Each structure stands twice: as C-alpha cells, then as structure tokens.
Amino acid sequence: xxxxxxxxPELFTFLxxxxxxxxxxxxxxNKRRYERQVREPLLRFISEFGVRLAEIxxxxxxxxxxxxxxxxxxxxxxxFSADKSPYKTHAGVQFRHESGKDVHAPGFYxxxxxDGVFGGVGIWHPDTKTLNRIRDAIVQQPDRWQxxxxxxxxxxxxxxEGDSLKRAPKGYDPEHPLVEDLKRKDFIAVTSLSEDxxxxxxFVDHFAATCRKATPFMEFLTGAVGLPW
Length: 229
What we know:
Elements: H1 9-20, H2 24-29, H3 31-56, E1 91-96, E2 107-112, E3 117-123, H4 128-140, H5 142-150, H6 152-157, E4 159-161, H7 179-182, E5 187-193, H8 195-198, H9 203-213, H10 215-224
Antiparallel strand pairs: 1-2, 2-3, 3-5, 4-5
Helix pairs in contact: 3-9, 4-5
C-alpha cells in the first residue's frame, strides 16, 4: 500500500485558473506551474500505478514518458474545431493495451477535471471492424457477457456509458435478447470520483482496486478484439 500523495489540490487549482485564462500567453507564463503541479506528479502516479497494473494484466502499459506515453497532451487539436481554445482544461491518463496506438485502444482511464473527476475502462469509439468483433463475441458468448455486466461488484463500481445506435446494427438480430448491448458504439464503463479522493495518500491503491473490479469486463473486450490479456 502506498502512503505517497501524487495528485494534490494544486493540480485542480491550476486547471480552474486555466479555464479562466485559456490562452498561450497565460500558459507560457505559468508553464513551470503546469510542469510542477500537473505533469510531474501525474508521471510519478503513472510509474507507481504501473506496478499495480502489471498485476491486473501484463499486456497493459503504464508509460511515464513526458510525451507519447500514458499522459495525454495538454494542447488541444483545434484544426477541425470551432472552439480555438489552445489547451485542455482537464488532465487525462490512459493505460492502454501494448498493441494500442491511440485513444481508441482498449484501456483504463483517469480523468481529472474540476468538478468532473472519473475513471473509465473499455474501448471508446472503436472502428467498425473492432465494434463488430465485440458484437460477435457477445452473440457467441451471451451468458458470459451477461454475467460480467450484471456482476454486483462491477455494477456497484461502474456504469455503462457511451453512444448507441437507434436500431440493431446491420447483420445482427433486432430481436436478440442483448440487442441493447449490440447497439453500442462505445464499450466503456465509468466510475465517478471526487477531487478529495484523488489526493488522498492511498489513491493509487484505490484506483487500482477499482480497475481490478473491471477485470472480467476488460478481459472479455481484450479477447474479443484478438489481443492477449
């Protein structure tokens, strides 16, 4: 068990101020604060969580590099957005599968935003081929899938979220008993967290314990898309 604090109230203070000053001049003047209060603590958190992640699955990665690893960039991609604010006003960390190249890979996720902290597991916005692999796995193993998503410990910790189709996807029985799951366009489950909990000394252990409750869910999705668990 860890008694080390990685995430502090200063992280959320910085993000709240960034919400009010989302421009390059302010950020450049406060860049060292970002590094000291946000980036560096989260990189240490990632390294510490990696020890626990290896016990959940050896094929998921905690990458503590400053760029290109588990910590998402603070810069927004504004090329195709009407909102030209240059910076994200949250910090995001994804522990994705070793075979994953981007945010759409299966993974464990931590979202840190003032008044909006949550953890997530699963696959967000997969492509059609990946989606259909998951749907096929549900059709082929309906009892296993039903046991996973109806498990008391899983349901107490997580809520299934994400986008869904209005009708059954093409090629799937609209009368299938699990048709609502077959309609899903995202296979993600989310757990709400509080700011106070994130800067508790044992938060890394709490987050790891929460992720473990999603082990059957993640194992199912990982196998469904043809990756090793």
